[in-house]
Amino acid sequence: MSRAAKATLLASVCLSAFTIWGVHFLQEQEHENMFQGVLRDDERRREKMRQREEELQESLRKRALYERYQQVSSQRDVLEDHS
């Protein structure tokens, strides 16, 4: 086998190995990015639930405050009064 053929074979093997490594590396990066996206989505969901819970507690606090100073009737009571 000639020296040029050996060099070509070696270059081809090295290029193929580098290409395979590169593809696996990119797949791992993409997988990690997708996983981080899931973690960010979970954090956003938790934050949204925390905000909703705070809003509910604030609403309940306001309702209790209003009920101390005025009579509050439910929607059902209002509908029955209009029947």
UniProtKB/TrEMBL annotation:
InterPro entries: Pet117. It holds the Pfam family PET117. Its main location: mitochondrion. One of its GO terms (cellular component) is mitochondrion. Keywords: Mitochondrion, Signal, Transit peptide. Residues 1-25 form the signal peptide. GO terms for biological process: mitochondrial respiratory chain complex IV assembly. PANTHER family: PROTEIN PET117 HOMOLOG, MITOCHONDRIAL. Belongs to the PET117 family. This is Cytochrome c oxidase assembly protein. It comes from Gloeophyllum trabeum (strain ATCC 11539 / FP-39264 / Madison 617). The lineage of its organism: Eukaryota, Fungi, Dikarya, Basidiomycota, Agaricomycotina.
